[in-house]
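Reply to dn_fold:

You asked what the input looked like. This is it:
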Amino acid sequence: MRTIWGTSLTDEQIAFVTHPSRWVSDTINFYDQPLDWSAVRTLPCQYVLTVRDTSVPAELQEVMASRAAAAVVPLDSGHLPHVTMPGVIAALCDGAAADVDRHACPEENR
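and this is what came back:
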């Protein structure tokens, strides 16, 4: 379990990830439903590609990012960067939100 997702996890991180409060009912239907990106196609989109991910290979992540027309941000991480490097993910989210704000309200950014 410690290295299953491509990054070594601490005891505290394993406890966080496996805590029952984070369990979600999962169904194969989540993975088979078509996505419609038309509502957000004009907004900037980023995909964090987790380079050391052993659950989702980088090649498959590149396919997913291309389907979303996303700018790829490679990150030297396994499958759980939100757990192993939350500060980096928070900074990427802040940057992405600022990009969306600049795109959605260009007159306010002059």
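The chain has one domain: 11-109.
Hope that clears it up.
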